[in-house]
Amino acid sequence: MKIAFSTSGENLDAPLDGRFGRASKFILYDLEKEYFEVIDNQQNLNAAQGAGIQAAEAVVRAGANGIVTGHCGPNAYRALCAAGVAIYNCEAPTVAAALTAFRAGVLLPMESADVEGHWV
Amino acid sequence: MILAVASGKGGTGKTTVSVNLAQVFGARVQLLDCDVEEPNSHLFLKGTLRESEIAAIRVPEVDESLCNACGLCSKFCQYHAIALLGATPLVFQELCHGCGGCEKICPRGAISEKERRIGVVETVEADNVTLIQGRLDVGVAMAPPLIRAVKSRLLGGVSAILDAPPGTSCPVIATIRGSDLVVLVTEPTPFGLHDLKLAVDMVKELGITFGVVVNRVGIGDDRVHRFCGERKIPVLLEIPDDRRIAEAYSRGELVIDALPEYRSRFSTLLWNIKELRGKKSGANHVRS
Which of B8, B28, B54, B198 is most buried, taking the most CB atoms under 10 A from its CB? Predict the structure, then answer.
């Protein structure tokens, strides 16, 4: 199982980015093999619209089964649901702390988007 | 003649210039309010609503039984309005610009189009002015298709004044593209100058003849005038900073009616515009 964490850095000590679509990177952590890779999301930082959808496509393409992030807008939520990927809301300061929380089973899958779209 | 009234900065007086110019036009004229997110020209023209038509764009609909999830539609759409994340593409209607590309690119004919309402186009008759205005629905962020719908009502052979939205982005381009001449309304302040420069670059890029109206002369400084002088940009009209103009505006009155002494200035503006149109070259000040 692979979990994508929104972040601004490239290692587990990096901060967990509260934004999904406009996070600059994702750390895709493989829970079985205990390693991670970094997915670049820079193209979305300045996207006029559709950043959440494009980010969803990127993490799904990379094989993520779940997303851990701060907040998720309506379009990204709908896109990730269609792909069967669960989204976990997390306030942890770092990717490592978020990973620990995920492993402990304290994160619950979101049942709806928790923020408005940014472009309206 | 199709004349567009634009500005970089908002609140410089586009509508004031547009509605007063329409009223001194002398002949039948069409006034198009292309500021479809907040049309306000109608406030200054007392007329009757002749028709109201629904404007729509065409958005995709996917027939799941025909789709094989090839993903070509998703790759094609630069607005991410159609995305392949599961077994079939998801459509995000509110992001769709209605270009129809996904329907054309689908090799299996799985995509058809259906109409999505974005607003209304209203036609108001007020004496010699035919006002055509777009009114974007609340929550819709898709002004250019509605602006094009407003412009599609233009009757050939009758002059038109296009009241543009502020700024230099897509809705403004959609408005001024195809016009014969652009009037850029500004004010003599640092903000006015900054945004005027952006607007000048935009109009030059489109290759349209243009001139400037400086509104609220007396505030700020002389940098807008110096800029126009250096660039040989014709100043077509100056409107002084007169509180009574703002008061008339706030009551929904035309300046030329409330303050008849200004009528000749708008007639001069019209004259200068026609001369600039005739000349189509970069003369400096024309009779201001």
Answer: B8
Residue A53 lies in a domain: yes
Q: Which one of B62, B84, B92 would you mutate to disrupt binding with A, by most A Cβ within 10 Å of its Cβ?
A: B92
The Cα–Cα gap between B238 and B246 comes to 15
**Residues B119-171 pLDDT 10s:** 999 999 999 999 999 999 998 989 999 999 999 999 999 999 999 999 999 99
Interface touch A79/B79, C-beta < 8 Å: no
pLDDT tens-digit series, residues A97-119 = 999 999 999 998 998 888 876 54
Distance separating alpha carbons of residues B81 and B131, to the nearest angstrom: 34
B80, A120: Cβ pair inside 8 Å?
Answer: no
A99 part of a folded domain: yes
CATH of the domain at A38: 3.30.420.130
DSSP letter (8 states) at residue A17: P
Distance CA B241, CA B215 (A): 7
**Closest chain B residue to A52 measured between Cα atoms?**
B80
